[in-house]
Every structure is written in C-alpha cells, then in structure tokens.
Amino acid sequence: MDMGLNGKRALVCASSKGLGLGCARSLAAEGVHLVMNARGQDALEAAADTIRAEFGVEVTTVACDITTQEGQAAVLEAAGDLDILVTNAGGPPPGVWSDWDRDDFIKALDANMLTPITLMKAVLPGMMERGWGRIVNITSQSVRAPIPALGLSNAARTGLTGYVAGTARQVAPKGVTINNLLPGIHATDRAVQLDGGVAEAEGITMQEARERRYAGIPARRYGTADEFGAACAFLCSAQAGFIVGQNLLLDGGATSLTM
Questions:
Q1: Over the stretch 195-214, which tens digit does the pLDDT of each residue have?
Q2: pTM for this model (two decimals)
Q3: Apex CA 120: angle with CA 105 and CA 227, to 5°?
C-alpha cells in the first residue's frame, strides 16, 4: 500500500532509540524526510546515519531536551514547515502516591502534557494553511486504564488526551488529524526501568519480573519498536485522513476493555 507520504517532512521527538526510533524508521521507509531529536548527541547521530544509509532520506538532527523551552525553540527552528509531528518524551519515574510532591507533578506535566501542546500549537497554523497535516502523540495505555505505580504519567498523559480530544475536532476541517498512540509494554529501555523497579522492590530477578509481566499480556510478549512504528506511519498516511482524535492501544491485549 502506498501511504502517500513520499517527500513529506516530519519531526519525530525522542527518536534516537525505542518507540521514537521505530516511528522515525517507519516514516523514512515511506520516503519521509526527518528532523530527529534526542538528548544524547552520539546515539542520535548514529541513528540518523543508519536511517540515511538505509532509506536515502534527508535527516536533520537536533540534540537537546525537548521538554525545555530552549530545546523546543531549537527543534522548531530546524524543522521549518512540517507535514508530520510525532511527539514523544520519556515517562516520569514510577512510585506510589506518597512519593510525589508538587514539583514532581509540574515536571511530569511539562514533559508529557505541556511539551506536546507547545509543539502542536507551533505547527498547527502552517498545517492548516497548507490543508494537510498529521500529528501523532505517543502517550500510554495508562490513559485508558491507570497503572497504580505510574501516577505521574497517568495524570499528565490523561490531561494531554483531553486536550487532543477537543483540538483534533477543531482542526480536522482543514485536513489536519491529531491522534494518540497508547503503548503498552514494549522491548525498550522503559521496560528495563520498570522491570528493574519491580525486581528491586520484590527481591526477584529481572527475568522473573519480565516473565511475570508477560503473563499479564495475552500476546505473551512485549511489543517491538518496528510494530509500533508501523502503526504510527499508518496514522500519518493519506489513508488515515478520516481517523480523528482517536486513542489507539498497542498493548498485546493487556488492557481489558470492551470499547
């Protein structure tokens, strides 16, 4: 299927590894030119070099913290006119309700709600003027079914979901879609962090923690970055223009919902 993306230009945040890299690779495979962002210069440049060599697309890199005003300004300046925006930022640390104070919540909101909103507000006017655009926010399965240990993420990402629900319907008449991808556990550094926390708290091995989590996933495995990236590319495609303000779960069936 030709996704109609050849020659488009995309900004993919936090894309040197993990789910962001999966999205960048899938878009590049469709002929999309990329602006890639991450905090670590070395990992970012290595990922960009691989994508250039494999897919023959243009890749601009901006090493910065996308959750800061300075980082956002640098990325947006480098990006120019965009057809596609994929927002992404690392999740807040796990814990319990008594661990977090106001500063912890402000940091989580800045990273996982206000940063995507800032980027969307910056690129939406141009997309609307040109009559075409795709925005995909990487959020979490926790917005459909809260995860007790991820209260900071539950709160911030659910706030973003509410913002998108209204905004997506306002910009859709101009040919711009906004949707959210809700990952469950994928084989990324985030899974290592979460499994490590369980292993330490309960005195078990990492493998035992991992297998315990597998048991709660009907697919009996973690997802892959390539699978996730393919879903992102489809939401960005010409064929996905009638998908507006939706929240797509990619969790191997782990979230038990009827609708």
A1: 888 898 899 999 999 999 89
A2: 0.93
A3: 85
